[in-house]
């Protein structure tokens, strides 16, 4: 009987932690992370700041977990696109997905965190490194060849630069043409 109670309690705690993580991810998509304070976050997620700390250990651990959750979702979308098309086509499809107005909050958050990382490596450096490393692995796998880390890094740099350009200027047409030209000129295969 005691074992059943412990199992149910553990499941409830895990479920509650996942709910709070989901709500936190939505909150930081809407509000960003640079001025994140636990009390407004807790209020928006329907809990108390002390319970967020209880479930995640610290504000920083909560932010890191939420950022990782969002990263995994975006990478899963890319993997799904790549499973249905050539690498070049999946890159274009991913570009359309990333530049869609519905996903603008994701882009803003990514570049906010990338901009904060040089100033606060302790808080954001691990996430940014994990993001670059995991994207490099995904892109290198998509290229279907071994030892493609340098090319994967170049592709990530080009896409990131074009996404930043798009986010700053709003010029989706020009940045899309630039990505297509990069792909057409062999930027993803040579």
Highlighted features:
190 residues, mainly alpha, Tetracycline Repressor, domain 2, 9 helices, 81% helix
Give the integer mean of the pLDDT values.
88
Structural class: mainly alpha
Total helix count? 9
Strand content: under 5%
- The number of domains: 1
N- to C-terminal separation?
Answer: 63 Å
CATH architecture: Orthogonal Bundle
- Compressed to H and E, one letter per element, the order equals HHHHHHHHH
Approximate shape = elongated
Radius of gyration: 19 Å
Description:
It is a single chain. This protein has 190 residues and is an all-alpha fold. The chain has a single domain, classed as Tetracycline Repressor, domain 2. It is 81% helix and 0% strand. It is built from 9 helices and no strands. The longest helix is centred in the N-terminal third of the chain and has 30 residues. The mean pLDDT is 88.
